[in-house]
Amino acid sequence: MPRQDPDVIKQQKTLSKQEIPSATPTAGKISTSIVKPGAPVFVTTLIPEVEVKRGEMTELSCQFQGDPPPSVSWLKDRHLIMRDPDFDVRSKATSSTLTIYYPTIDHQGLLTCNIANKHGKASTCCIFKVTEDVLSRTEIGPPQEVKVTDESVFTEEEMIEEELKCSQTHQAH
After folding, report:
1. How far is 105 from 126, CA to CA, in rounded Å?
2. What is the pLDDT of residues 63-86, one digit of tens each?
3. How far apart are the C-alpha atoms of 115 and 59, rounded to whole Å?
4. Domain map of the chain by residue range?
5. Is the pLDDT of residue 105 over 50?
6. Edge-to-edge strand order for the sheet containing 49-53?
């Protein structure tokens, strides 16, 4: 599961039965209009921006309604996700989940869930970002000089001396 705040449910937008997202999605922005009875509407939409660590399995879910129940499709960067081993789509009558098993930077982009029936269509989307789980060079620090000796044990005085040398080296950078 992606790292999410406990308030993640609050971040999901809930729409009333009289509203519908625009059919041309822009992450984080939703335009609404009055809909016909039975037209598909999202009850919960995707979070506008999702960021996960590389390799961290992620599920994106949304809930919707419509009569008849709408058909569902998922897109990445406006291309239909079909028969892709990196993704799994599971849809029910009122919900759909996109699972990304091992996210990499190749999976970054605009992910969209489209729903449609004979009365209309709706979309929700998010910007999906993948971060590397590697310490940056500033967190690691500059390269350090390593002294190799034949002695297997340092005296207490030698250990203090080495520690002082290391701390002076870090202060100089």
Report:
1. 15
2. 999 999 999 999 999 999 988 899
3. 18
4. 8-131, 137-172
5. yes
6. 49-53, 120-131, 109-117, 71-76, 79-80
Whether the predicted model's global pTM rises above the 0.90 cut: no
Instruction: Calculate the CA 124 to chain-centre distance.
Output: 15
Sole residue written with tokens 């309604």:
65
* Tokens at 81, concatenated: 């996700």
Angle made by CA atoms 123, 38, 122, in degrees to the nearest 5: 5
**Arch. (CATH architecture) of 8-131:** Sandwich (2.60)
pLDDT at 13 over 60: no
Q: Which two tokens stand for residue 46?
A: 């995707």
Give the number of C-alpha atoms closer than 13 A to the C-alpha of residue 125, restricted to the C-beta side: 23
Closest CA to 97 of 74, 75, 66: 74
